[in-house]
Amino acid sequence: MSAVPPPLPTPQEPVDHPELLQLGTALEADEPCLRADAARNRARLLEAAARLVAERGAEAVTMEAVAAEACVGKGTVFRRFGDRTGLLTALLDHSEKKFQAAFLSGPPPLGPGAPPVERLRAFGLAMLRRSADELELQLAADPGASRRYVVPARRVLRHHIEMLLRQAVPEADGELLSHALMAQLDPALIHHLTKQCGLPLSRLEAAWVDLVDRVTEAGTAR
Q1: Which helix (H) or strand (E) holds 190?
Q2: Do 175 and 40 contact (CB within 8 A), yes or no?
Q3: Which element (helix H / strand E) includes 48?
Q4: CA–CA separation, 71 vs 55, rounded Å?
Q5: What does the CA dihedral 63, 34, 135, 64 come to, rounded to 10 degrees?
Q6: Which DSSP helix (H) or strand (E) runs through 117?
Q7: Quick check: helix, strand or coil at residue 106?
């Protein structure tokens, strides 16, 4: 699938069913149909990286370590993934596509068929739980401040929130509000609150539901 994000929607454009995006890397976008041997090599490298994450944590995943684990040259890893962020992002690709499928076409309330406010609540709760499960890997794959907001998968998530906000409170600035809500779901914040402050995930979930209700009720009350 293309790693190029869909264009920003205008208020008249429905975005209920955007194409699922692969997290991928720029290198993969240039060769959408990998040769069979290249596909096998990629799978072998990802399996090696996954073993390192399971055995030693995401911090142990370097290009050199993956090359050694897969018994290939370091250059092979760089050619396939570009850099360490590209490699870690590829590891997250499978769960990202599953999550996209769930909120784009899965059962309600996360998927279509429920009121927009219910879908917003379910979306944030699902993201919080997913981040809690993959927190170390998500933090390690963070592309950094200069690229964080243009990563294709993140743009799809934010667009989805914007769509639901437009449906729930059409007079609000859905674009900027969607950024504010996404900030509540940032893996770095989740790490800080749960690991460094010791807050239970249930408190973050309750805060998300409260935030959604306050934003949408304030909009409909005017």
Answers
A1: helix 187-191
A2: no
A3: helix 36-56
A4: 17
A5: -10
A6: helix 116-140
A7: coil
CB burial class (10 A; 0-12, 13-18, 19+) of residue 145? exposed
Q: pLDDT (tens digit, 0 to 9) for every residue of the chain, 222 residues total?
A: 334 444 434 333 344 444 455 454 434 444 555 577 778 888 889 889 888 888 888 888 899 999 999 998 999 899 998 988 889 888 888 889 999 999 999 999 999 999 999 999 999 999 999 999 999 999 988 888 788 888 888 999 999 999 999 999 999 999 999 999 999 999 999 999 999 999 999 999 999 999 999 999 855 554
CA distance 81 to 59: 17
CA dihedral 8, 10, 11, 15 (to 10 degrees): -50
What CA–CA distances, in Å, run from 25 to 31, 132, 179, 209? 10, 24, 24, 34
Token pair in block for residue 59: 């911090």
Q: Report the alpha-carbon distance of residue 151 to residue 186 in Å, rounded.
A: 14
Residue 91, by phi and psi: left (phi above 0), alpha (psi -120 to 50) or beta? alpha
For residue 143, what are its two tokens? 């592309």
